[in-house]
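Our collaborator T.R. sent over the components below with a one-line note: 'Predict the complex.' Nothing else. No constraints on interfaces, no templates requested, no preferences about which chain binds where. So this is a plain run: every listed entity goes in together, and whatever single assembly comes back becomes the starting point for the next discussion.
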Amino acid sequence: MSSNAAPTRRLNTAKAMVEAIAREMERDEDVCVMGEDVGAYGGIFSSTTGLLERFGPQRVMDTPISETGFIGAAIGAATEGMRPIVELMFVDFFGVCMDQIYNHMAKIHYESGGNVKVPLVLTTAVGGGYSDGAQHSQCLWGTFAHLPGLKVVVPSNPADAAGLMTAAIRDDNPVVFMFHKGVQGLPWMAKNRRSIGPVPEGEHVVPIGKAAVAREGRDVSIVTLSLSVHHALDVAEELAAEGVDVEVLDLRSLVPLDTEAILATVAKTGRLVIVDEDYQSFGLSGEIAARIVEHDPGLLTVPIQRVANPDVPIPYARALEYAALPTPARIKAAVLKAVAR
Amino acid sequence: MLIVSTKHIDVAAECIPTHQLLNVAGERVPDRELDHYVAKLTESDLADFLRDMVVLRRLDNEATALQRQGELGLWAPLLGQEAAQIGSVRATRDSDFIFPSYREHGVAWARGVKAEDLLSVWRGAQSSGWNPNEVNIACQQIVIGAQTLHAAGYGMGIKFDGTDDVAITYFGDGATSQGDVSEAMVFAASYQAPVLFFCQNNQWAISEPVALQSRTQIADRAQGFGLKTWRVDGNDILAVYAATQAALAHCRNGLGPTFIEAVTYRMGSHTTADDPTRYRKPDELEQWKAKDPIDRLVKYLHVIGADVQSYEQRAQNAADELAAQLRAAITAMPDPAVDELFDNVYSEAHEPSVRAREGYLGYLAEFEGEGH
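Returned assembly:
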């Protein structure tokens, strides 16, 4: 490590998340953590490792097994002045707590005429690729982004996870923080070199609503998020050797969505591949396409390619699961089609 | 077809007794546990209870009339539940925080919410009639039972802050079948949070009788969650007031959450969109009219030799004044401006929402003068 004024360390995404939470807990004693297995276990995807030992059970609370219970309680605590970080272990479990999320967390501020704020962060693990079946492998960010009143962030790398977590905790709105299990850098997941990266020391905030160009390119744009950013970068590196210059836009936030960044990259390349691990229909990929053609249908010189889940539940069988996921092979084929190779 | 019996089953032993301090004749019934909570009440306090209940009944009737005349979109009458609401809320202190359902007009009003502000929400003139943080009562919750979880979490926050305030949540007998209410009791008990669960068992969830929700007394269920529980005659304002004092003291002393089942009756409709004659028999209503909470207190005032006529006159005057003022305020209340449509979706005006607002309002402006 260097001794520069703004040093960075290499951390995995999970550790970067935890570090950001811990820093905010030091800074503000109203920040607390609630959820299942967030204490001694440290979060089953290591999102709260070490927090119990550091901050104690008053602020890092293992809860009874009721998602609607602890999310509803977190909402109440937030209206009391706390700033809870509440973990929904798998986003797939949203079905048992959606009333509290959709009808309360997202609407109390509106329905109270702006008088009551709900400053909480709902963290949740998303994504498949490790044979966890149809009820433990979904992304569902489109489902959360669909509803007004929530902000939705989806980091792809350690630095963004830290910076977006800090921004989310400080935000006075409810923020849904969706982390892909495949980007956490967990030893028991498929090895992913991009799940470890430099994270700035000290104050580090990534503003919610700003996309990032993860790789600049001239020929074709991949607009994507989360683990698919890693695949897109891998494909871009591979295709660079074949003379195709790929730009990769990492959305980072779905609400607010950085429409200007999407329009800018499409205006630059004229060719668009959207990679979305969520279901294809009625979701993010359609929304991106609509925003582009509403602005200027002439920006695109070739039809849009979508690489998404083909509207099937995520299979448990490895061979079937990988047939449904947006794999590097599918992304590469879509890029080549877009550039007519 | 499965037929669910709606008859109460005879529970062999009622685990929790029903406290009553005033019987139907208005006579004081001794109660060793609760007597001392009402020992300090003066005749003047009782007269204030009477005035509150009379004014509240008038507020409720006026709101029903305003709805019938097209001035409100909807109203959920509380007729018959005046003692349950006034008796309980008068036992709270200002720094306690209340999470009500949509029928707790008396609780909000007694907390200092103006009647016209309360009705303005039902008129659609504004989304919130009051700032919950100023009067320590949340907006009225429409989703059945959802607010109980917010109270549990609020209570956990109180405990974290180390004050002796209490979070109080109101809900009905029907709500006790919702998972949220059970889950809220689990959480409050697990964390020993200072939460009072106040159930007004008004016998009906729209058209469903309470026996369809629970085959035991609701209070007996609460006890199973580990909550200190009381069951009271909800039309007896003294019993409600006393039990609420007892429950709040328990919470303030750090002894954990509490539960009160106030047994009362919804004399009116579920809402103004409902016609209860379709599902309940007239003689049931007559039986409950004999237990009317206001009549009961009037009888008691007679029993103790108070100048009832002057107290009733004073209450009537206050009710007349409120009704006239309320009607004038409501009928003069303008519709909200269309440009409020986008207000408060988020706590700040972030750029995409500002653009969306401007674009949409410009689009709407094209339709001006064309009606809806």
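Summary for T.R.: Chain A touches chain B through 46 residues (CB under 8 Å).
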